[in-house]
Amino acid sequence: MNERADARWLSESRELALACDAHGIIQWADVRARNLLRAHPGAALTTLAVPGTEEKTQALLSRAVVSEIRGWELSLVCHGKPATVSFCARPNGEGGVELFGFVYPEGYGGAIEHLSRALTEIVNLNREIVRQQREIEQQRTELTRTHRELDESNRGVVTLHAEIEEKADALRRTSEVRSRVLANVSHEFRTPLHSILGLSQLLLDGTDGPLSEEQQKQLRFIRTSAEELSQLVNDVLDLSKAEAGKVTLRADLFMASDFFAALRGMLRPLLPSHPGVDLLFELPEGDITLETDQGKVAQILRNLITNALKFTEQGRVVASAVRRGDEVVFRVQDTGIGIAAAHFDRIFEEFGQIDGPVQRKHKGTGLGLALSRRLGELLGGTLAVESELGEGSTFTLTIPATHPEVRELATLAARPLDPSRSPVLIVEDDRKTMFIYEKFLSLAGFQVVPARTVDDARKQLGTFRPAAIVLDIMLEGEATWDFLAEVKQSPETREIPVLVVTVTNKEQRARALGADEFWLKPVDQDHLLRKLKSVARPGTPTRLLVIDDDERARYLMRKLLEKTPYELIDARTGPEGVELAQKLRPEVILLDFLLKDVTAFDVLDDLKADPRTRGIPVVIVTSHVLEPSERERLVAETEAILSKDSLSREIAIHRIRDALRKAGVGTSSSTE
Known about the structure:
The chain has a five-stranded antiparallel beta sheet with strand order 2-1-5-4-3. A five-stranded mixed beta sheet has the order 7-9-10-12-11. Strands 14-13-15-18-19 form a five-stranded parallel beta sheet. The radius of gyration is 37 Å and the shape is extended. By secondary structure, it is of the alpha/beta class. The two termini are 46 Å apart. The longest helix has 97 residues, at 108-204. Keywords: Coiled coil, Phosphoprotein.
């Protein structure tokens, strides 16, 4: 094809292509798009629309960002005149949209001519597809042969995997037995140790008469040995719990300055035995707020500071904290004997110790650093060391300022209610148990609403009515018997099913207070789901009120929102609509601007004057040409303004979702 033919084809063709970003700004346009529509990069696609049809153009962009669209017709300005352009659009994978359009000619003859050309191109394209299919068939044959070979290899891998899994199971069983033995033996040690410590202290205090200096010295040796053995037992217990995943997280909100003040007071008695060593706490610039397990952070830093004091004969030990993004970095730095790089891994092993004169002098259990690293991991962080022999050591604990479980639970609590799911109030202080509930209940169609305290549960009941309550009767620091009694005695909540799930076998008392079911932990998931499905109320659909005096408009809206989770009620007049809104409390109101004898402003004034309807979002749906002053007021008092001329199912659902989100009500994805 020569240049003149190319130019003529370009001038006659009405097919065009262009690309926009997520905001509708043209990024690229072919020659025909530039010639026919004056579409140039940098311009907004909506500026090409015929005045009054911009919203339909924007609706195309909004939908095409997430899914492919075919046959979407827009009214665009072509050579200064309105023209109809049929678009196919799809996401480009980078947040933008690719658009392929066809400009309908003014006459049918031109349309037939263009269709003929298009059919010719389709025939040629079909031939090319047939050729490519032959090539694909050949490739499929090759793939089948390769698949057979891979299948044979896979059988060998499966056999090897089974052997590895069997060995892994044996190792897990061995580890579980080891942890149980350690825990049982440690518990058996604690009772006689407590007796030794208590009796030796009584003797040292002279309860039964004075002791000689030599006897006191011997008793102090006995007590010191018993204290070391007691520390070893405690470390073994803590480590076995950490390895078994049975450590309970008790997160609370605290400030780094208060934490350091308490830690300083706790460790001050250690300094007299280290006369040449200073213990310093460097407070951060601007206080640091943490929400994590303060006790475990303190346990880690106590271990690090105690070790630093043991192996620092002259100089100082400095504890510091600094905020780094979403993390807090604690450092314990000393001027002690230091550690060789070759021993970095060993010091974090269980019973791992380094042989040396100073180490032999301060013989420890060899579990402190291993336990500290494991506790640091449970806090979502890491424990690392930097050191040189003779230059001192720096141990660095890096943890999230907010524990991941706390953050996840806060996200769960802040999630708006989904009208398509039955909400279940879970009153449970253990976060892991809460996440387990969330996982299997959400898959079964329920929405978990968490409450970690009785006060949280009362607040939640003041904002919504759950389909059921799952209640742990023994929360940390409080019993929930009174809460159970309140729920079952109040006329507003007595009909809510309460399922008690706890570790304390108090079924008779729970039943007496009105519990509908009682189980001991761990509860069987299938049993809980069956019970919830039998007693929980189904989720109520989102209710929409349509106020319009045109019967055809009400019918159209009902058809547009068919097969969605929205329940439509309608009113023919403004006063009737206000009365229904006060009585039924819909989640969204769709209001026509011009009604018989009143306007939307009259209805809005009545709605805003009543506390029951003041917070209901309103979407204006009208064919009236609004004056600038009218539009300005409606924009301030409503959620959106829709034109009946360009109204579609997609636009209506989109605006309803926006209004629900602003009102704090969840929406279902099933409305597509």
